[in-house]
Amino acid sequence: MRAISKTGTFKVVLEGKGPLTLRPSNYIAAGGEGSIYVAGDTAIKIYQDPKNKIPWNKVKEKVSFFKQHTHPYVIAPQGLVTDISGDQIGYYMPYVKDIDHGGNAEPIARVFTNDGRLRLGLTETDSSTLVERMREIILFAHANNAITVDANELGYFVIPKGKSGPEPRMIDVDCWVLNGQKPPTLPIMPSIRDWHSTTPFGEAQDWFAFAVVSFQVYVGLHPYKGSLDGYLPKDFELRMKKNASVFEPKIRLNRAVRDFSCIPDSLREWYEATFKKGERSIPPSPFDTKKIARALKTLRVVSGPSSSSLIFKKLYGDVHDPVIQVYSCGIAFYRSGALI
Description:
Elements: E1 10-14, E2 18-22, E3 27-30, E4 34-39, E5 42-47, H1 56-68, E6 79-83, E7 88-94, E8 106-107, H2 109-112, H3 114-120, H4 124-143, E9 146-147, E10 156-159, E11 167-170, E12 177-178, H5 203-219, H6 236-241, H7 265-275, E13 279-281, E14 295-298, E15 324-327, E16 330-333
Antiparallel strand pairs: 1-2, 1-6, 3-4, 4-5, 5-7, 6-7, 8-10, 9-12, 10-11, 13-14, 15-16
Helix pairs in contact: 4-5
């Protein structure tokens, strides 16, 4: 089959749902691998060149995995997509739409800001409810022999008024690795990359990514930001490698940063062990009054130069600005409130 163009009208068949005609009006965005179309409450990923190096065995395995292992907080593939001749061309999944565009979800970055929290009416208890539910997603993945690999700040939506409090939605599962498979070569978002590990992925690295994102839910700042003597703003990666976090005694923080007292004691202890001491562990629940969980492993800092740089300095200066991020492992983008 030839590569699919976004400019025309074409018919597809959704596994378990039947035929569907996609038109230019259904087109949302394109990335390195494919294009995203939206029809009603369904998002459809169509590979640009379905016969060119697409690991269909892995795509099928992922669809099968998420049919057998469902979680209410994970937006995952529901079935394959073929053309009218039966050739595989993509997959489909639920469509997450934000509040600004008639939906009931928000990009998690808006929860980081004081203005966003005030607008949504989120309390400190709500923060803990959201963080606990994010923790459940990682536990779910690991319990089913899966690694999330790149669960960064762009990988979550939040439903502020969910059941008994805010609910997360992990919306980019293209990068998940199942059953111990070797992941595709992909860039890990520098903001959540574990520079203390010799491998870019694993359970310990998933928990580090969780720590970075959930910490921002509480205080509104990345754990390696703020002003610190001896480091320039461009030294972000160096600070991560040196454990020069916000827990340093001489750190200077913007007054918009929320006081660390909003973090439950046991979880704050875990954050400090993670960011300041380089420990990697399974975090306690924010509602747990017990001490810090056992360490998975304490890893040495990786030495050597790196050409990577922080992809973004802020996620939302203006909450109406689009933020677009494309990964080699799949497509993840914000456009009209959608991230697939």
